[in-house]
Amino acid sequence: MLRSIFRTVTPVVSTFRTASSSLAGRRICTRFVTPVRLYSSESVDKNEITTRVIDVIKAFDKTAASKEVSPQTAFHKDLGLDSLDTVELLVAIEEEFDIEIPDKVADELKSVGETVEYIASNPEAH
Amino acid sequence: MVKRLSGLQREVLHLYRTSIRIAYSKPVDNRPRFFSFIHEEFGKYKDLSRKDFTTIEHLLRVGKKKVEMYSKPELKNIH
Predict the structure, then answer these.
(1) Can you give the residue range of the structural domain that contains A80?
(2) What CATH number should be reported for the domain holding residue A70?
(3) Is B20 within 8 Å of chain A by CB?
(4) Are the Cβ atoms of A103 and B42 closer than 8 angstroms?
(5) How far apart are CA B11 and CA B14, in angstroms?
(6) Which residues form the Complex 1 LYR protein domain (chain B) (predicted)?
(7) B17 with A107: Cβ contact below 8 A
(8) Total structural domains in chain A?
(9) Domain limits, chain B
(10) What's the complex ipTM?
(11) Which of A10, A25, A57, A121 is buried most, with the most CB atoms less than 10 Å from its CB?
């Protein structure tokens, strides 16, 4: 997704440059070029990730809503999810943060804390 | 207790993950249908013995073909 944004950004920059240099010269041109960044620039902080992950889990139909979800909660042991449910939950979390967790990593994620840790380490998460 | 998954089990999980991701690529209103379809398809063979390799391999092949078909962007809804 990020790559597609970059692809669209480059032509925009170049059109700005040609348009502005013909209109008003260099100063405006540099003003256009530097700050073009269309995605959120700050990486999300851990507490926010945790609450969002927990929200996704609570919204997931197979988890009992009454259950307390903390970073220590394990998908299989505490939430009673089988392997397929875990996969489904992780894809839901992927959707929420707009990332794709590779298979190898996803198979190892067994608890809320581990998932939060991974998302925090992923620079593309937002 | 860390359960090691066999290669075949991981393949099934991979197929399931791909199917769910495809369901997310469909229009929001129709997603529940795709989800219940996926649950149904995988649920059919829930009680299959994990030593029944040939059957699982066959189902994986059939499943991959189906995933390929359902992943087409023209396909927006199922009944």
Answers:
(1) 46-121
(2) 1.10.1200.10
(3) yes
(4) no
(5) 5
(6) 10-69
(7) no
(8) 1
(9) 10-43+51-70
(10) 0.84
(11) A57
